Amino acid sequence: MARTFKEVFSLYKPDFIEQAAIEKITALSLKVDKDMRLIEATAAFSEYISYETLVAIENKVKECYTLNGMRVKPTYQSETFSVSKFGDIIEELKRRRAQGNGFFANAVISNGSSDFNEADVSCEGDTIFINLKNGGKKLLEISSCDKILSDIISEWFDIEKKIEFTGQTSLDFDQYRQDNPLPTFEYHPAIHTESKEEQAASVQNSFGRGETSAAVNFEEGICSSGKMRFDINDMEIVSGKFKTVDSILPIRNITLESPRFVICGEIFDYQKKDTRSGEKCIVSFFVTDNDASCILKMIYDKEKEEQYSKIKNGAAVMISGGSTIDKFDGSLIVKPAAIALIKRIKRKDNAEKKRVELHLHTTLSTMDATLSPPDLVKQVLDWGRPPSR
Length: 389
What we know:
CATH class of the largest domain: Mainly Beta
Largest sheet: 8 strands, antiparallel
Order of helices and strands: HHEEHEHEEEHHEHHEEEEEEHEEH
Shape: elongated
Mean pLDDT: 82
Radius of gyration: 28 Å
């Protein structure tokens, strides 16, 4: 005979509401990861249980058994579904996607009442219409919120529903600011007179943020981005085709609305893994111009591994592509359409008599610097300082 939820989690002490909920469980199955201390309990309920109650059960079981994660995945009879349950469905969406927050704040449900949104939610046949009031349709669809909502309904109620976002799908920010003005405060800035030392430091400091511009000089074959400069005379194409390199976009200025653009930078944190079939490679890496960084992700056929092997940590690259939202973690990423290797133009020490700054810190000084000793030695050699004998 199958054990009940209370028998499985005997240390758990439910309150009155939780006890009533677990008594309505008609079937229970568990997935346990002992190494990660994670438990997923799929429970079939004879009646609908509020999401708030399920979360309370999860938290108490997690605390009783010192788990890293505890999830209760409910299933219900199909006839229990109605749009009045959408408040709970949105809460589950928020757990799965960050984009579920904000766009559904203060909604009104057509078949009931809820405080989850200012949007009207209605169901016609196999389609659920969510009438947005604050825009965001593009971001919600790019981050697959419509598909996830459909998945939740299918998992919970064993029915298929298509989600469509209607209403005010985009927001006029100028009109929004006009209708919702920010409060104004009288500001009295402190009067500060710079000392001669401060004035000199502000002029002589060469490590400030500087401009975040980018440019291409075709005559000299040099381009710049952020705080880096590159030689593009002998550009080596790794994949794709560059339609145009009329301009370079600073990495700092990449947004979701950016059209196809070209960026330059240096690769770090390169990671690669094979797909389950072993036929393709999944690659992710960061590109920095020493002012800002972005993450790029791509998939290529395993047979092209030699072609892509030059893409690695420390390589200087020019990349043409576009921005999108990663469907797995909801972050802004760049999808490369073309990649080329270029050469970074590094700072040079042109002094006739070489010198080395004797007082500096490396990672050997705990939490005091990010420069590693090998990188320091390499930089000194690059600047022409002969090795000590």
